[in-house]
Automatic annotation (TrEMBL):
Keyword Hydrolase appears in the UniProt entry: yes
PANTHER family: MANNOSYL-OLIGOSACCHARIDE GLUCOSIDASE
Taxonomic source organism: Streptomyces monashensis
Top-level taxon of origin: Bacteria
UniProt similarity note: Belongs to the glycosyl hydrolase 63 family.
UniProt signal peptide: none
Protein name: Mannosylglycerate hydrolase MGH1-like glycoside hydrolase domain-containing protein
Region ranges (Disordered): 473-496
MF GO annotations: Glc3Man9GlcNAc2 oligosaccharide glucosidase activity
All residue ranges annotated as the Mannosylglycerate hydrolase MGH1-like glycoside hydrolase domain in the record: 51-447
Keywords from the named record: Glycosidase, Hydrolase
Pfam families: MGH1-like_GH
GO biological process, alphabetically ordered: oligosaccharide metabolic process; protein N-linked glycosylation
Length: 496
């Protein structure tokens, strides 16, 4: 058996039988135990109790952490998700585990009816999924997973297999979801953006007639306090939107809810840069993808940047509403982009440190972790889902952004806060931004995974990290792209 085959065999055995050692009490070990406990054999659930299926952007973040304990498991995580991709390119936000009882989570497979209602859009017949999507972190995750063990990745043909699916996923978003006509992707349901209960959705949701209370049962209240979860009124509107989309056979047309969101589009841009690197690894050119990322960044600035707010805002495309005058952490996430104008990046850093979010490296900080919503906003609630609590995935994204834009002191402070609070709370789903008190589920997948990733960063200092290498490559690509003319079509090899 040659060396490559030996590496693949050992990695396979490790992925299947992985069990973190009982000895030792370091954060790295505790985080790895959470991921092992949430592993189902081919994917990782966010939480055994509250979220017992595979979630799309959760799996991308989880793969980023898993790459440090088992690169093969991290590859398998993404491959399992992408195997449930629809024919039109969409990656569904939930892939359902058939062994989980229907009443364990709502909306359940019998609500979404993917195999029948999604038939026209190419929903898979062998697995049940939801019909909406979540933020496109997947190409970024795939590149980082590849970089964790390039020999294993190449021996398995990992990038060659996922690249066409990732390209089709991006093509779906850019071709089918530009509802505003300005080049940005729109979400058609709050669940798609990932920050489900943000006050940014209050105005767009106000136009939606909620589903009757007795038409659904909220399984989330069996595992979480009602005061921490969305209200029944908001949940009824979520159900109505999802049911209408399903009844329209998941066609992307003229639904009542359409919002351009900064974080969703920023993650698409970051993943476009990652797809460029993946294409180059496979022997193709990445210039067209970098040019696309550059155009998307320009559209993001043109359509969603608000100088008065000092950050990006959501744009409501329904009812002529325009920009939504609510400050959420989503509007800070574009800080992670390498092509962001320097003056905008500097303004975002000031907003992060200012009174609306209150996080910085100094002793006068008002928050222990970056809140999900404006501290001064009327809707702020330090415990209610996405209306104020701090989340670990958004902190990870901001840490990457601070480091990318030359703010190492703030990045170090944020990394330290994530590591301390993740460990102290038993890897909580989210925390009170003032006190650090745990909220939601504990043993949460992406909290453990991203803490593991930041912990690994500390071990590797001062060597450059893979995301920083990606940023450097993206900046070089943007610089060269400024002198050329590019085809706006997909690169060769994208067709499935």
């Amino acid at each position: 058996m040659d060396r490559t085959a030996q590496l693949t065999t050992r990695a396979t055995e490790h992925a299947i039988a992985y069990d973190p050692p009982a000895r030792g009490d370091g954060l790295h070990v505790r985080a790895a135990r959470v991921l092992a406990a949430n592993w189902t054999g081919n994917a990782t659930v966010p939480s055994r109790s509250l979220y017992p299926h595979q979630w799309s952007w959760d799996s991308a973040f989880i793969a980023i952490g898993l790459r440090h304990v088992s690169p093969l498991r991290a590859q398998t995580e993404l491959e399992t998700l992408l195997a449930a991709q629809w024919g039109d390119g969409r990656v569904p936000h939930i892939v359902f585990n058939p062994s989980v009882p229907l009443d364990a989570y709502f909306p359940s497979p019998d609500f979404w009816r993917s195999a029948t209602a999604g038939r026209t859009a190419g929903a898979p017949r062998t697995v049940q999924t939801s019909g909406i999507v979540q933020p496109p972190v997947h190409a970024l995750a795939a590149w980082l997973v590849h970089r964790a063990d390039p020999v294993l990745s190449r021996s398995r043909g990992f990038l060659a297999r996922v690249y066409p699916r990732l390209a089709a996923w991006h093509r779906y978003l850019t071709h089918r979801r530009d509802r505003g006509g300005g080049g940005l992707v729109s979400v058609v349901h709050p669940w798609e953006q990932g920050m489900d209960n943000s006050p940014c959705w209050d105005a767009p949701l106000a136009r939606i007639t909620p589903a009757p209370d007795r038409s659904f049962r909220r399984a989330d209240l069996d595992h979480g306090a009602a005061e921490d979860r969305p209200t029944d009124l908001d949940y009824g509107r979520y159900v109505r939107l999802a049911a209408d989309y399903r009844d329209g056979r998941y066609a992307d047309g003229e639904g009542e809810f359409a919002v351009e969101d900064p974080a969703f589009n920023a993650l698409l841009i970051a993943s476009e840069y990652a797809l460029a690197r993946i294409a180059e690894e496979l022997g193709a050119a990445g210039t067209a993808r970098r040019a696309r990322a550059q155009r998307l960044t320009a559209a993001l600035v043109e359509r969603l940047w608000d100088p008065a707010a000092g950050m990006f805002l959501c744009r409501d495309l329904g009812g002529g509403q325009g920009l939504v005058r609510e400050r959420s952490v989503s509007g800070l996430i574009p800080l992670m982009l390498p092509g962001l104008p320097p003056e905008i990046a500097a303004t975002l850093v000031r907003t992060l440190r200012g009174p609306h979010f209150g996080f910085g490296p100094g002793p006068g900080d008002r928050t222990r972790l970056v809140p999900s919503y404006d501290l001064l906003g009327e809707a702020f609630d330090p415990h209610r889902y996405w209306r104020g609590p701090a989340w670990f995935n958004t902190a990870w994204l901001l840490e990457r952004g601070l480091r990318a834009h030359g703010e190492p002191q703030s990045a170090d402070a944020l990394r330290g806060a994530v590591l301390h609070l993740a460990d102290a709370t038993g890897f909580a789903e989210y925390v009170d931004p003032y006190t650090g008190e745990a909220c939601g589920a504990t043993g949460f997948g992406w909290t453990a995974a991203l803490a593991l990733d930041l912990c690994h960063d500390l071990r590797r200092q001062p060597h450059p990290q893979p995301y920083q290498e990606l940023v450097k490559g993206a900046r070089e690509g943007v610089s060269s792209a400024a002198t050329g003319t590019f085809d706006t079509s997909d690169e060769g090899g994208d067709r499935r």
